[in-house]
Amino acid sequence: MKDCAQLHDLCRLRxxxxxxAVRCWRRGTxxxxxxxxxxxxxxxxxxxxxxGDYAAFHQADQEFHRTSVAAADLEPLLKSWExxxxxxxxxxxxxxxxxxxxLMALYREHELLLAAWHGEDEGTAEQATHQHLEAGWYRRxxxxxxxxxxxxxxxxxxxxxxTHFASHLEMAWVARQVSFVSASHLARMFKDKLGVSPLRxxxxxxxxxxxxxxxxxxxSVATIAGRVGYRxxxxxxxxxxxxxxxxxxxxxxxxxx
Length: 257
Fold this sequence. Notes:
This protein is mainly α.
C-alpha cells in the first residue's frame, strides 16, 4: 500500500499528464468534437450524481478523463496515464465516498473544469486541471483537521476565482465546496484581508481581465463581456464604467473622462 506522499505525487503526475493532453487537443482540429464528447459524458455524470451512485459515477468519471487524454492522440501519453490512473483508482474512489457527501458538488466541479478546458485561455485550462485533481487532498486534510497556508480559505477562493471567473459562480458554493467555510465566514475573511466581499472580488477579476482583452484584441464589447463571465452586456458596460470611469469602447480608444 502506497503512503500518502507517494499517492500525492501520483496525483500530481496524473494532473500533469492530463494538463499536457488538454493543451494538445485544444490546439488541434478535434477541439470542438472532443468538447461535444465531453459534454455528453458530463450529462451522464450528472445523472449518476443525482442518483448518488458512487461506484458508477467513479467509472464514468474515469472515462471522462480518459477521453480527454486520448484526444491528444499520443499513445505513450495515454499508456502512462492509464498506469497512473490504475494506481490511484482505489484511493480516488475512497476519497469520493469519504469526503464528498454530495456527488452533485463533485459534478459541479467537472462542469467548471470542462468550461475551463473549452475556454479561451490555455493557462487557465491547465491550472483548472491541477486544481481539480488536488481537490480531494484539500477535502481530506480539512476532514482530518490539518490546516496550513495551502488551506487558507481566502487563498483557496482567490485561486479558484482566478481560474473559473468566466463561469457562473455562486459565492455560497465556493465558500462551502472550495474554501470549506460558511458564506458569511468567507465574506468576513475577504473583508478583513482584501477589503472587499467575495462577489466584489470576482467582479474586479472579471473587469481587469476585460480591460486586458480590450487593450490586446479587437473582439466586440459583447464578446468580451461573455468571455469574462457576464451574461448581460449592458451590465458589463455599467460595471466597467464604475470601475474605470470610462466605457469599454473609450477605454480601448485610450480616452479618459
